[in-house]
Design goal:
The complex is a heterodimer of chains A (about 550) and B (about 80). With about 550 residues, chain A is α+β, with helices and mostly antiparallel strands. Chain A is built from 15 helices and 17 strands. Chain A folds into three domains: about 290 residues, FAD/NAD(P)-binding domain, CATH 3.50.50.60; about 110 residues, Flavocytochrome C3, Chain A, domain 1; about 120 residues, Methane Monooxygenase Hydroxylase, Chain G, domain 1 (Up-down Bundle), CATH 1.20.58. In chain A, strands 1, 2, 5, 6, 7, 8 and 15 form a seven-stranded mixed sheet that branches. A four-stranded antiparallel sheet of chain A has the order 14-9-16-17, with helices on one face. Chain A is globular and about 65 Å long. Chain B has one domain: Alpha-Beta Plaits. Chain B is built from three helices and five strands. Chain B is elongated, with a radius of gyration of 17 Å. Classes of the chains: A alpha+beta (about 550), B alpha+beta (about 80). Chains A and B meet through helix 10 and strand 13 of A and helix 2, strand 5 and helix 3 of B. Strand 13 of chain A pairs antiparallel with strand 5 of chain B.
């Protein structure tokens, strides 16, 4: 059995080390809480914002004027605005103003050119909601700030489960140490928990480079830990059935689509969308925000491929764009272009849709960031009813940290733990490690097995549809796969054990998707069903809330919180 | 496969290994060059390259990841590629 080597206690436990987790940790520490941040990697450079971002959705009265609703409308109409409870969007925007100023005071360049510049993810003639900033050093700066506020860090420690009190309530977490020769556990007791574990990647087969698991636009170590924890423990999840499918350069999966100032064009040079006909440094071409799917559709019907063509832009604009891509953290693409002699002024880059990943779908939170599980909060990309990328993570991480700190003052400390559930969690991990050296199944083959099931039985458009037949078959096969992994999955070292446990998180996310997709008996967005082809207007202002209580899965509908 | 450490430049500080979010490296101690244990798990965030104090780490893009592109002129001429 893998031993529990260490025990720690805190008021607020932040699970994850990205933008949302660091923000929560700083906010809670400023409230006087004893804060521990536990990260599977190191918070200096972990998560999807590791080396940059360049669009910070926000409301700045000095730029936008006094009517916040102008920006509320833009955010809800943006590519990230589809799965929002508008009440959360408004709370976010109200607090986003102070966050811009706060980040600036901490040293993150929010106006690298000396003024607040709003550009990208924007339609010509419409207000612009995304502040263009330089996020390259955002993580080291937030990490340093958290340390200065007294936050304690436990790096290299993926959380594998909650720990519970005798009433079955989460009162901490069990984390696996991976920075040693043999794995060990740290048992953490806390009054409140903030889950901020990021997106779930590696769930669907790779569209860019089949067989290669890590060609990803988002952090490949993020596999939906927080969603899995909430799903496994009866909490509310939502919007898992509405796939998000990112798009970008082909075949190197990167973010930064909105940093490109070029025009999306067909091979005959005609623009794909109606918005711009020449490169535009303020708006770019928002066509590919409006429809990612068109990239695949036009490839499949032969009218594509679709290129993003920056030719005709003045060299100064192109230099700005290259700089913006560095701010966004995609300098690896620029390095590759330099090595290959690819030049934005002369070459048009083909774009594509990547495989789906889980982002802005998952855990339901209330206006204060609390999940349906008391004393458990969630922020960032694992939240299912709100998402505005990095700024959403920054602001809601902050709200969660403040809320959790206040709640911690009243929450009792855990006196006794549910030993049975703790033993079960330890045993679940240990069994995999006990098979080391046996030639058993590897995490990699397990991961690919999950991907093939997801791509076949919870497929995404265009040209593929879901149905009760497929989803029921998929759930059966997922259950069979889980049983097989329980018998055969092995790991030779702590790193492989971490990856093996990630596959179980992906299984949880996949099953949550299939159950929700089965329950949503209509087509909506990228959730397309061949047996329910209509989009039902009666469901437009509703969310489907899914729960899994000890294997009993149920769905209920609620009105959106307007 | 990425990343690639230039052993002549590397001073063995281990920063790349410490900060890698994918746990790609192994580092046996100060003064020793980290080993790239899991190159295929690199997601090309480029943190190691950015934070290496000696510029000793570079990333190599696997061939299937390469960008596909055409001369812009072919689009302007309304010509099939």
């Amino acid at each position: 059995m893998i031993p529990i080597q260490n025990e720690m206690t805190c008021d607020v436990l932040c699970v994850g080390g990205g933008i949302a987790a660091l923000q929560a940790s700083i906010a809670a520490a400023e409230e006087g809480s004893d804060v521990l941040l536990v990260d599977k990697a190191h918070p200096r450079r972990s998560g999807s914002g590791a080396t940059g971002c360049d669009h910070f959705g926000c409301y700045l009265p000095e730029v936008h004027g006094d009517d916040i609703n102008v920006i509320v409308r833009e955010i809800l109409g943006s590519q990230t605005g589809t799965c929002h409870d508008p009440r959360l969007t408004r709370r976010f925007l109200k607090e986003s103003t102070a966050m811009v100023h706060r980040w600036e005071s901490w040293g993150i360049p929010m106006r690298p050119k000396g003024f607040y510049e709003f550009k990208g993810h924007a339609f010509p003639t419409r207000p612009r909601a995304f502040l263009h900033y330089d996020g390259r050093q955002q993580k080291p700066i937030l990490y340093k700030k958290a340390g200065e506020c007294g936050v304690r860090f436990l790096p290299y420690s993926p959380v594998v489960d909650f720990v519970f009190n005798e009433h079955g309530q989460p009162v901490g977490a069990l984390a696996l140490r991976i920075d040693q020769e043999d794995p060990g556990f740290t048992l953490i007791r806390s009054r409140t928990i903030v889950l901020a574990t990021g997106v779930a990647t590696r769930l669907y087969s790779s569209e860019t480079s089949p067989g290669m698991l890590f060609n990803l636009a988002y952090c490949g170590s993020c596999t939906g830990t927080g969603i899995s924890l909430v799903w496994r423990n009866g909490g509310h999840t939502l919007n898992m059935e509405i796939p998000y499918i990112h798009a970008g350069p082909k075949h190197f999966a990167r973010c930064g689509k909105a940093s490109f100032i070029g025009v999306a064009r067909y091979p005959d040079g005609s623009p794909v969308g109606p918005f711009v006909t020449e490169p535009d440094k303020d708006y770019g071409d928002v066509t590919l925000d409006v429809s990612h799917r068109i990239l695949t559709e036009r490839l499949c019907d032969g009218r594509g491929p679709i290129y993003v063509d920056c030719h005709g832009a003045p060299e100064a604009w192109l230099d700005e764009m290259r700089e913006a891509l560095r701010w966004e953290g995609v300098a690896a693409m620029l390095d590759h272009m330099d090595e290959e002699g690819i030049d934005f002024s002369r070459h048009a880059i083909e774009f594509m849709q990547y495989e789906p990943h889980v982002q802005g779908r998952g855990v339901e939170i209330d206006e204060n960031g609390e999940t349906s599980i008391p004393n458990v909060y969630a922020a960032g990309d694992i939240v299912g009813n709100f998402r505005v990328g990095v700024s959403g993570a920054a602001v809601y991480g902050w709200i969660c940290g403040k809320s959790a700190a206040r709640k911690s003052k009243d929450a009792p400390s855990s006196s006794s733990l549910d030993q049975n559930s703790l033993d079960a969690a330890c045993d679940r991990c240990s069994r995999i490690y006990d098979r080391r050296g046996s030639g058993g199944a590897t995490w990699r083959e397990a991961n690919i097995a999950v991907q093939t099931l997801m791509s076949s039985y919870a497929p995404v458009p265009p040209h593929k549809a879901r149905s009760a037949n497929l989803l029921c078959a998929g759930l059966k096969y997922m259950k069979d796969l889980r049983a097989k992994l329980d018998r055969e999955l092995s790991a030779d070292n702590p790193h492989e054990l971490m990856r093996a446990l990630e596959v179980y998180e992906l299984l949880d996310c996949g099953e949550a998707i299939m159950h929700a997709a089965l329950e949503r008996k209509e087509s909506r967005g990228n959730h397309v069903r061949s047996d329910y082809t209509l989009t039902n207007p009666l469901l437009s202002n509703k969310f489907l809330i899914m729960t899994n209580r000890k294997g009993i899965v149920a769905g209920t509908w609620r009105e959106k919180w307007n | 496969m990425p990343p690639i450490i230039d052993k002549d430049k590397c001073i063995g500080c281990g920063i790349c290994a410490a900060i890698c979010t994918m746990d790609v490296f192994s580092h046996s101690g100060k003064g020793h060059s980290p080993e790239v244990l899991y190159p295929e798990e690199c997601w090309h965030c480029r943190a190691c390259t950015m934070d290496c104090p000696k510029g000793a780490v570079r990333l190599r893009l696997p061939i299937p990841y390469r960008l596909l592109f055409v001369d812009s002129a072919t689009l302007r001429q309304g010509r099939r590629v």
